[in-house]
Write the structure tokens for this entry.
Amino acid sequence: MPRVYIKTYGCQMNERDSEAVAAQLVAKGYEITPTEANADVILLNTCSVRDMAEQKAINKMENLAGQTRKKRDVVLGFMGCMAQSRGQQLLDQLPDVDLVLGTQKFHRAAEYIDQLLAGKRDKIVDTAAEAGSEGTIKEHLLLGSAERKSVSAFVSIMQGCNQYCTFCIVPYTRGEERSRTIADIVAECRKLVEGGVREITLLGQIVTSFGKREIPAVDGKSAFVQLLEAVHAIDGLHRIRFTSPHPKGYGDDLVEAYGRLPKLCQSAHIPLQSGSDRVLKLMHRGYTRERFVGIINKLRKVKPDIGLTTDIIVGFPGETEDDFEQTLSLCREVQFDNAYLFKYSQRRDTPAAAMPDQLAEELKEERHARILELINDIGAGRYREHVGQQMQILAEGPSRNNPSTMMGRTRCNKIVIFDGSPRHQAQLLDVKITRASLFTLHGDPAILE
Ligand code: 5AD
């Protein structure tokens, strides 16, 4: 039974793609191994969103090639975004690599690995577009194995992005927006719920654009809100989340859905990128600071306790001290629970890479440190506010850092660590929050079963 090790870089979409590849391989008789040491096949599922992510994967592959060449015959493969954007070039740079699999070809992984292991083919590069590939990320690992039951699962609903933000490589690595059908997605969700899943996160590069071209609005409800309603109707499902949205997708129909659909958790990760209108325009984001704040206010009106997180880029080309201060002031105004902060990274063939006034690395570092301090400060306050409150959590399983404790998430998507036992897994529990540490809550189960 050949053993496969898969390492994933980047976002939740990549995690999900890796899971689907793993499930596909398991169904064909392969074994997934948690370490690279004894693997017959090593796959790196890559990320291109910043240069650092690409360098990490390339360095890793260089090390693997060096180690495995000395010892034994191992199939080495790149998958995902960097495989898509660099293609054959990766083989030229790293001749020990056997497989380069693009973002529309994950479902071909097992077939190609079979061929490579059997010696039928020497090298395979497949980064072609494939009609219907948006509907191929379907298999889940948990369905096959009783001992690995997951409470929470991710479901891919669409692929690609047409927003063309000037900093972003995603439209080139993931292609045009393509959506699955609502019926297909609901069937997958139903199966997951039958297998014990209680929380589903709908995934895509720009989920709020789901079905835009394919599915007409009904009674003022966008295709995405229609999908939320359809998933909401599944019996046995407790919670629905989604990521990642675009602010332009928060029309009144979606805002109103938070108030109307009790399974839709009051949390949202809404990428801001910048608080300066001038920079937002250069980024081609399609909204102003005022519009962004307006969306947040509307959401808080419907759900005052909504958990809000965001992504911010510092050091976009031409960002002045004044632009940066506007981002800081927006953060003070909105009070995010947390934010992912990125230093602008030039990506090949994106418009911003060729813009004038690229900022020095030290300036990006300095702004990153300043905004990190602010975000940590605001976040600490937001987490502290929960101390003393009773909150509902969905118990997911043993905590990663300390497996003798359990972990769950609040509806507003904050992690809660509590003393419990595996029998609490998959249950909705009310806990009293006793303490807050940085971006983690600690709770005491008030009601057990
Ligand atoms: N440089 C830095 N950060 C980037 N992101 C996307 N492209 C870049 C880039 N070129 C960030 C954005 C996005 C998140 C996933 O990654 O904030 O929301």
Q: What stands out?
A: The two ends are 42 Å apart (CA to CA). The chain has 13 helices and 19 strands.
